[in-house]
Specification:
The structure holds 2 protein chains of 2 kinds. By secondary structure, chain A is an alpha/beta fold. Helix content of chain A is about 55%, strand content about 10%. A 4-stranded parallel β-sheet of chain A has the order 6-5-7-8, with helices on both faces. Chain A has a two-stranded parallel sheet with strand order 1-2. Chain A is globular, with a radius of gyration of 20 Å. The two termini of chain A are about 35 Å apart. Helices cover about 50% and strands about 10% of the residues of chain B. Chain B is an alpha/beta fold. Chain B contains 16 helices and 8 strands. In chain B, helix 1 runs parallel beside helix 9 and helix 13 packs across helix 15. In chain B, the strands form 2 sheets. A 4-stranded parallel β-sheet of chain B has the order 2-1-3-4, with helices on both faces. A 4-stranded parallel β-sheet of chain B has the order 6-5-7-8, sandwiched between helices. The chains are: A alpha/beta, B alpha/beta. Chain B: This is 2-hydroxyglutaryl-CoA dehydratase.
Chain lengths: ~400, ~400
């Protein structure tokens, strides 16, 4: 993580960025927040007596914050020592090699750090099967794992009252687990309003980013996406950083994208973050990114019901990916919307090697966009930090060259 | 060894009529012009009691084992799905799929693993598909209530397919009937506790297979006399090496490992801890009170697969079954890319080891290219078990 953030602080000279972007206070503030959300810092917070859990950073984060708990994204478990962690998963836990690097690094790192202070894990039962399995294994290392019951609904028709009811009941249970007392619904409502306020800001930021796609790099954009879910443990500070960035973008003159750049839509998270750099170094301009998490919570509903509706709606939109067990069939509709809206000339779809769910979604998208004559490049990466392979870079470059 | 797709399987002669009956039932399912709707389902957590109560023809869709069908499914999934999930999709291929799957008017999927949840999204392109929720937290009252609600929705969906209402009494009657079938199949299995069981592992799999294709009335009428006959067989005192197979689903059509162990090596599978073997028959449902609560509780209380929580329940059940059937070794088989059993395999293997039962771990698929390797490993395993038995005899002397 440190390495990534160092590079964020020093934009490459070769990129055609405005001087303003290189000195952006907003981007620096976001990078600093991300830095403070590092593994070591989070462990220090837990050691100081704060309630900190692995997970709970996504759709359910308003509840977690309302229980005075800091939710931590599990990506922290693979940002460092990922190779060592993967080796532990394969050797100590005998996890077959065909499974994805994410789940292997998660269980490996949880194992090596079992003596640390974050011993509670929260996850959603509709998430991917391998992550369920590794969290079950982590119980042997003393982790207290709580699962929110499995509920899936991919259409409004499937979003039946019983599904909402069980999720509300589960969230009430999780509140007791976190805080030892019944949930304070007023606090959850307040946290929902805070998160909605942040999401509205992020929406606005991405609208502006669409007009200035080269101002915020792919890596920085990814940090903003992650922050929109959990605010790096400090929603207020993150919101201020986003405000600052919005102000910077509003001050810029809107110009058409230089014809040397190829507008692209990216679909999915990009495990190997250096691939984002490869896209940009090849003069790809990411004009939109379908990664999910941009729905607003319904503030008119009772707060726990609002969270329940949010996650089930996200599933149906193909939002939030495997964290919520989203549909593989519907994300392409949003990707298509973004291609239309932005005039992008191609799509880069990414998935993690060994992830059956993402691979299925990619395949469905590949077939769909082929039928609609929209070029799509499907990339598979892992979570390690090594540079992308020459083959991957060549594919990205060839794709962008083809579009040019 | 005989390919189950092309010819008669290597069953005992007593089981051949059962096999013929199943095949005839499948032909009816595919070809009979009876105006009755056809429903398919994948998972053993689906209550067929409701399908039978509605009067629809129904079948569990667990035919797999053919590389060609896998290849059909792989057009959608790429390679990283398990071969069973790929086969479920591939069976619906309009040109090269399975006729049984193509005869289905509607698929109901109580999704167990995430792969099968996604498979049903693809299958929905071929045939109307309803995705239903299956809780994981079996011990929670709220989860049971949720499952009960899902089952009521399942009833309503089936009623729409059947074009008629389904009464509670009809459901209760089917619970009684299916309980009888489950009890009878379990009694067949208990015959395998004998030193020399009167039926092989392959035979038992055929009996279990029939449960998913035959109406329970037909099953009972055929199985009861067979049970009487087999239970009257005298134990001749021989004691082949006794094995349990544990792990991922063993599809209808994937018999190669059992055939290899029993026909080529001479050991005997006396029990299975997988969802197409004994596991679904170790529990019966309440027959009184609210039928939906009985179905919800009954199916959640059945022996758990590794998808259920806590994992320890599945691991301990597996070990307990091995002890109950006095097995000398366990063959733990997981399909490549099966997260439920592939990622957790060490938990099972460690527990078997703690019980003092040797285990052989096999990672499998439907490629048919590893027969030689499998045979070598299984032979070596059985040889070790024979040596252990000989050592035990010497130690007892």
């Amino acid at each position: 993580m440190t390495e990534v953030l160092d590079r964020l602080a020093k934009p490459r000279a070769s990129r055609k960025r405005t001087p303003t972007a290189e000195n952006s206070k907003g981007l620096k503030a976001i990078a600093a927040l991300a830095q403070n959300y590092s593994y070591a810092q989070i462990q220090a917070e837990a050691a100081a007596g704060k309630s900190v859990i692995w997970g709970g950073f996504s759709w359910e984060s308003p509840l977690i914050y309302a229980c005075d708990t800091i939710p931590v994204c599990i990506d922290q478990l693979w940002l460092d020592k990922s190779r060592e962690s993967e080796a532990i998963a394969e050797d100590h836990f005998q996890i077959p090699g065909e499974f994805c690097s994410m789940i292997k690094t998660v269980i490996g790192r949880l194992h090596t750090d079992q003596g640390n202070n974050i011993k509670r894990i929260l996850h959603f039962g509709s998430g991917c099967e391998p992550i369920h399995a590794v969290f079950e294994l982590s119980k042997r290392d003393g982790y207290d794992v709580q699962t929110i019951e499995t509920v899936s609904s991919f259409t409004n028709e499937e979003k039946r009252p019983a599904a909402i009811k069980i999720l509300v009941s589960e969230l009430q249970r999780i509140a007791v687990w976190l805080s030892g007392k019944p949930v304070d619904e007023n606090r959850v409502a307040e946290e929902i309003r805070r998160k909605n306020s942040l999401l509205r800001k992020v929406h606005k930021l991405f609208e502006l980013r669409g007009k200035h796609p080269l101002y915020i790099s792919g890596l920085q954009t990814l940090l903003i996406f992650m922050g929109s879910m959990h605010g790096y443990g400090d929603l207020e500070a993150f919101g201020k950083a986003v405000d600052s960035l919005i102000a910077e973008l509003e001050a810029l003159e809107v110009k058409p994208l230089d014809s040397a750049y190829i507008p692209l839509v990216v679909a999915g998270g990009v495990g190997n973050r250096r691939l984002l750099e490869a896209i940009e170094e090849s003069n790809g301009a990411i004009v939109s990114w379908v990664i999910g998490g941009d729905l607003l919570y319904d503030e008119n509903l009772p707060p726990l019901e609002s969270l329940a509706h949010y996650v089930l709606d996200a599933q149906g939109r193909g939002d939030l990916g495997e964290m919520v067990g989203a549909s593989v069939a519907y994300r392409r509709l949003r990707v298509e919307d973004e291609v239309r809206r932005t005039g992008a000339r191609g799509i880069i779809s990414s998935s993690i090697i060994g992830c059956p769910y993402a691979s299925l979604m990619q395949q469905l998208e590949r077939d769909y966009f082929k039928a609609h004559s929209v070029p799509l490049l499907a990339l598979e990466t892992d979570v390690h930090k090594e540079p992308p392979t020459e083959e991957q870079i060549m594919r990205v470059k060839a794709f962008i060259e083809m579009l040019a | 060894m005989v390919n189950a797709h092309t010819s008669l399987p290597s069953l005992s002669p007593d089981l051949l009529p059962v096999h013929a009956l199943i095949e005839a039932e499948q032909k009816e399912f595919i070809g009979a012009e009876d105006g009755v709707q056809r429903a398919g389902y994948f998972c053993a957590y689906t209550p067929p009691e409701l399908l039978a109560a509605a009067g629809v023809r129904h079948a569990r869709l667990f035919k797999a084992g053919s590389p060609e069908i896998v290849a059909n499914g792989e057009r959608f999934t790429q390679s990283v799905f398990c071969d069973f999930s790929k086969s479920c999709i591939g069976g619906f291929d309009k040109n090269e799929g399975d006729p049984l799957y193509q005869a289905v008017d509607k698929v109901f999927n109580f999704h167990t693993c995430a792969s099968m949840k996604r498979a049903s999204e693809v299958i929905g392109q071929f045939v109307p598909t309803t995705l239903l929720n299956l809780p994981r937290l079996r011990d929670q009252a709220a989860s049971r209530e949720f499952f009960r609600e899902e089952i009521i929705h399942f009833r309503d969906d089936i009623a729409e397919l059947a074009g008629r209402a389904i009464s509670d009494d009809e459901i209760s009657a089917q619970i009684v009937l299916f309980n009888k079938a489950r009890r009878l199949i379990q009694r067949f299995s208990e015959l395998r506790k004998r030193a020399n069981p009167p039926l092989s592992g392959k035979d038992f799999l055929e009996l279990a297979r029939g449960y998913y294709y035959l109406p329970p009335e037909k099953l009972l009428a055929t199985y009861q006399p067979l049970y009487e006959k087999l239970s009257a067989v005298k134990d001749d005192g021989k004691r082949p090496i006794r094995l349990m197979i544990s792990g991922s689903e063993m599809a209808d059509g994937d018999r190669r490992l059992v055939e290899l162990i029993e026909d080529e090596i001479g050991a005997r599978i006396v029990v299975e801890d997988h969802c197409t073997g004994l596991r679904p028959f170790t529990h019966t449902l309440r027959e009184d009170g609210d039928p939906f609560a009985a179905l919800a509780d009954g199916y959640l209380d059945q022996a758990p697969c590794a998808r259920m929580k806590p994992l320890d329940d599945s691991v301990h059940f597996s070990g307990g079954l091995a002890k109950e059937y006095d097995v000398e070794g366990i063959v733990f088989v997981y399909l490549k890319f099966c997260a439920c059993y592939g990622v957790t395999k060490l938990e099972f293997l460690n527990y078997f080891q703690s019980l003092g039962i040797p285990a052989l771990e096999i990672s499998s698929d439907y490629s048919h290219s590893d027969h030689g390797q499998l045979k070598t490993r299984a032979e070596a395993f059985v040889e070790i078990l024979n040596d252990r038995r000989a050592d035990a005899v010497v130690a007892a002397d």
